[in-house]
Amino acid sequence: MDTVIEHKTVEVKLNVKRDASWKIIVLFLTLIFIFILSFALGRYPVPPGQLLQVLAARILPLEPNWIDTVETVIFQVRLPRILAAILVGAALSTAGAAYQGMFKNPLVSPDILGASAGAGFGAALGIYFSFSMVGIQLMAFMGGLLAVGLTYGISLRIRHDPMLALVLSGIMMGSLFSAAISGIKYIADPYDKLPAITFWLMGSLASITPRDVYLLLPPILLGGILLYLLRWRLNVLAMGEEEARVLGINTKLMNAIVIICCTLMTAASVSISGMIGWVGLVIPHLARMIVGPNYRVLLPAAMLLGGAYLLLVDDLARLLASMEIPLGILTALIGVPFFLYLLLNSKWGWK
């Protein structure tokens, strides 16, 4: 009975928007629409009717009236890339939303603890030593985990405000690994390794394969599911540590679990896509504006919005120029004006 009362108290204090459920449905349908549209976009256009026929032929006994190239483009090129864009966008947005609640700070993003810089260092090191693509991705993933592990370990040695200690330690580790990346770029072969490192750091999904999607799924699903299972505790954390302790939350353990989940999602995303900024900072604010601050609906909204947003940006990256535009450039060009709009109009969706 007490638990029910506590849940209701948190729901009331968060002022949940009553129409959030149908908004989640609209966001889901929007993602599905962009998902289908993305198959038809590119240098090898696939008409929607033909796309539906090819997809239906996988489950129905239909006679194919298309060339084999169409199936190759759909299943080997576009489907892995589309799924990767959705997963990476959803992961970064979810991690950003969770971190913003945990730190009670609207300016926090998934790279606050150095995960992106650490992953970038691992990837740069892998490229410098001519590792295979799988080796580079593994180095990036391990680099992200290492950076956050060092950040958390250092913060435990600081006896003052634990949240401030985490942020300052993360800034320090991010700067350290960014400097290490610059050092590798300085000594890298300017005709071979340096361009590869630079392009990777700018973010791209151009070389995604089905294997990459399989590797990406476990850490993102694990982190995302755990965060959603902890949605009520995230609501309490966002209200303040004192109130969380009164309601029986072990804040130290809860913070550690959130950090582990967000690190898994961020490091896995950066390991296959490179460093893509602004997604985990801007999208959670947009989700709050739409459905409110309750993590019961905020996390699904952030996932759907993040997936749809990065998929749309990836479509633009393929279409706007003869050569693909790095995703990091487009997300910054779109994210900065939108974030400035939020600042100038105070539309945080935060309180």
CATH superfamily: ABC transporter involved in vitamin B12 uptake, BtuC
Q: What is the annotated CATH architecture?
A: Orthogonal Bundle
Q: Proportion of β residues? A: under 5%
Q: Count up the domains.
A: 1
Profile the largest sheet.
Answer: none
Distance between the termini: 28 Å
Mean pLDDT value: 89
Q: Which value, in Å, is the CA radius of gyration?
A: 21 Å
Class derived from helix and strand content:
mainly alpha
Which CATH first-tier class would you pick? Answer: Mainly Alpha
State the shape. globular
Q: Which spans have pLDDT < 50 for at least 5 consecutive residues? A: 1-6
What is the number of beta strands?
Answer: 0
Number of helices: 15
Helix content: over 70%
CATH topology: ABC transporter involved in vitamin B12 uptake, BtuC
Description:
With 351 residues, the protein is mainly α. The protein has a single domain, classed as ABC transporter involved in vitamin B12 uptake, BtuC (Orthogonal Bundle). Helix content is 77%, strand content 0%. It contains 15 helices and no strands. The chain is globular. The model is unreliable at 1-6 (pLDDT under 50).
